[in-house]
Amino acid sequence: MSDEKKLLFQAKNMYKSFGPTKALVDVSLDVYAGEVVGLIGENGSGKSTLTTIIARIQKGDQEEMYLEGQPYSPPDVIAATAEGICMVTQEQATFEDLSVAANIFIGEEKQFATGPVVNNAQMKKAAKKALENIGVTHINVSTLAGKLVFEDRKLVEIARAVYADPKILIIDETSTTLGKRGRDILYSVINSIRDSGRAVIFISHDIDEIMEVCDRISILRDGHKVAEMEKKDFTSLGIKRQMVGREIEDNFYRNDYDGSFSDEVALRARNLALGCLRDISFDLHKGEILGVGGLADCGMHDLGRILFGLDKPDLGSVETGYGKRIKKNTDAIKNDFAYISKNRDQEALFSVMSIRDNICIASLNKLANGLGLISNKKEKDLVNTWTNELQIKMDNMNQFVMYLSGGNKQKVAVAKWLGFHADVFILDCPTRGIDVGVKAAIYQLLSELKAQGKAIIMISEELPEVIGMSDRILIIKDGLISGEFPRNPDLKESDLINYMI
Amino acid sequence: MNETVKTAEEKRISANTVKSVAMKLYPFVALFIIVVLFSVWSGGRLLAARNLKTILTEAFRMILGASALAFVISQGAIDLSYGSAIGLCAAIGAISAKAFGPPAVFVTLLVGAVIGLVNGFVHAKLHVNAFITTLSMSFMLGGLLDTILGGGSASVPYSMLNWDSTWLRLITLIVVVAIGYIVFEYGKLGKRCRAVGSNETAARQSGINIANVKMTAYMITGVMAGFLAFFSLIRTGTSTSGTGDGFEMDCMLSLFLGGMPITGGTSAKFRAAIIGGLTMTVLTNGMNVVSLDVLVQQFVRGVIFLAAVALTFNRKTVAFIK
């Protein structure tokens, strides 16, 4: 089948190492005109490494690439864009202090310039058109990008990439940051590029999404390409097996439907109002996993921040089961609360600090002696206990967290709070951007914590995991709780979506 | 094919190792070079017994000053009011010494603590950035100092000069530096300062009381300003409008020469205050011993300041130093 198609891009025998870690070993990738190629694999399997080399964000140790039959080796991202390859990265890549319009035309201001002066009105008009191009009409191009919600910033990045009119658009793990509306926009962009005879390289951890969007996939594991599949051969289990390299269960959520928990309240939220949240009240009980779902910008992420005392609500209160008020982050810590932000790399972790310091930082009070001093041995014991328990893959505990893969980073964030012996866990998108293996480990851990009588709030944009893990589900819409659902094997995503939009 | 990969990889690793070892060694190398350079240049006068005593007096001030400032700089913050705080503490100390004698040390410590508290409060609670807060504070303190001294100077009772002794300095230096080292490297406070310097948002989300950590650090520099003001009084006998002038820059330069990154964070080490303080002392003293023109001295300081900052900060994590 491939023979009839035109070969658009070819990468041959690509190698890349980071220190002792081999990120890519002899990987090749062909991309044909008019197709969507999926790249899938666990964290650290080399997907992002391969695509960032293609987009020239970094260079391979050894590389050989052709675009439309011509050798392709531009020196940097700008040159790559000029040659027709553009990438939307996994990370946040908007300039917060610039307007949406300025973000879309960053580096391209010249086309609106007369001498040294940029014609802003003209640029805004063009920016508006670029957004409409991908079907976005709700974003004001004069707003600062930093004022937009995460999803809208990503849409701005997509508009920027599409405006460059690339022959190949690379989309790296973008859909996890998008809600339903954003995803629909993304898929229509992908379809229009495919239909116009160009191509898309698509990376996602969501196997169902990959199967739906892609025509063909390459599966990577530990820097090697282990398989290629055509659409007709796609099966969820087959893909997972290739990714992990061993048999895994198809269903990694909880398999019990006993949605019971203690009557004892661990956290009491009353009439919370802040931003778009208008009036949120609920009790979280010991031994309960409370799922919180809704659209990306419904305010559920702010709710997590309020519960941990990071944001002060305009109205309402957060209390422990014993009636102690949580007003500041230090109140939360004193009452053994734990919080992991959705924004893991920037907020939940210190990227340029060692694994050891990251894990110990929350527990300093518990580790210190009467003089406020902490012995090396106590720190090392704590770190060893939890890195072993969670099987964190690392060279040693003094390694910077920034060098770990996404899943292992999340494990460090979790280890920090397990070592702290938290009683109430406020987890915002705990499995965002991590692979199936680590996901399964986190779900397993949540079940264990529940069994130990810990109270857990899981805020998530992934409805399957909310349904699969929660004892009780709250759906937030228009700043209010629009629906509450007990654990039930017959509950379907569509039942929840009706309450979300 | 695997061969090529391996060599590239090995090159990278060895380059990184060389770089990190060089970064660790650089403060020691800088100290060594400066000592050798000025020993030769001064024809041995640098290390003569009489000059060594001067060096000790200077090193006492510089190392203690840098030690306290390490708690502020490791958070990625700055204290530009440090020198003027010493000036004001010394002036008020001199006036109160006329009334109480040596117990005036408690007055200087108290004044320093209050200055630190105000700095910390404005920065941490009112969220004014550290640069503006402490720069404004240095203007205010300078104004107060001139008002109190009325353009002249204030002297302490002559008997207080008897307190000054090399031994007192040496023992105080060792004790204070030992305490500072332990608190900075092994204490909750030091670890929290570095965490705030690494990522303030993550520190907050780990339950750290950011305002407390910031205020404590400014209290430390404030109290140290009071402490050094007292030692300045018993050595010189007077307080003038020039007391403490430029001390904040000398301390910062000490820390950067000692290898502390201006951005603070995890790679901030207490030894920077000790080694850098020594280097700075020898540099300043050496330039005086060889009778280098004062204007040239300022130029040299400027060049070294830039070079030390550029060398020590972590380029992987920040685009520019603010």
What's the helix and strand layout?
The complex is a heterodimer of chains A (501) and B (322).
Chain A: E1 7-18, E2 21-32, E3 35-40, H1 47-54, E4 62-67, E5 70-71, H2 77-83, E6 85-88, H3 100-104, E7 113-114, E8 117-118, H4 120-133, H5 150-163, E9 168-172, H6 180-195, E10 199-203, H7 207-213, E11 216-221, E12 224-230, H8 236-244, E13 265-274, E14 277-285, E15 289-294, H9 300-307, E16 315-320, H10 329-334, E17 337-340, H11 344-348, H12 355-360, H13 364-367, H14 376-389, H15 406-419, E18 424-428, H16 436-451, E19 455-459, H17 463-469, E20 472-477, E21 480-486, H18 493-500
Helix pairs in contact in A: 5-6, 14-15
Chain B: H1 2-41, H2 49-73, H3 82-100, H4 104-125, H5 130-149, E1 154-155, H6 166-186, H7 188-198, H8 200-205, H9 210-236, E2 238-239, H10 247-257, H11 271-289, H12 294-312
Antiparallel strand pairs in B: 1-2
Helix pairs in contact in B: 1-11, 2-6, 2-9, 2-10, 2-11, 3-4, 3-5, 3-9, 4-5, 4-9, 6-7, 7-9, 10-11
Specify the CATH architecture of the largest domain in chain A.
Answer: 3-Layer(aba) Sandwich
The helix content of chain A, as a percent range, equals 25-40%
The largest sheet of chain A is: 6 strands, mixed
Uncertain segments of chain B are 1-6, 317-322
Q: Supply the CATH class of the largest domain in chain A.
A: Alpha Beta
Q: What are the segments of chain A in which pLDDT stays under 50 over at least 5 consecutive residues?
A: none
What's the alpha carbon Rg of chain B, rounded to whole Å?
21 Å
N/C terminus separation of chain B: 45 Å
**Rg calc of chain A:** 24 Å
How many runs of DSSP E, i.e. beta strands of chain A?
Answer: 21
CATH topology of chain B, what is it called?
ABC transporter involved in vitamin B12 uptake, BtuC
Total number of helical segments of chain B? 12
**Basic shape of chain B:** globular
Number of strands of chain B: 2
So, CATH architecture of chain B?
A: Orthogonal Bundle
Name the CATH superfamily classification of the largest domain in chain A.
P-loop containing nucleotide triphosphate hydrolases
Following the backbone from N to C, one meets helices and strands of chain B in this order, namely HHHHHEHHHHEHHH
> How would you state the average pLDDT of chain B, rounded?
89
Strand percentage of chain B: under 5%
Question: Strand arrangement, largest sheet of chain B?
Answer: 1-2
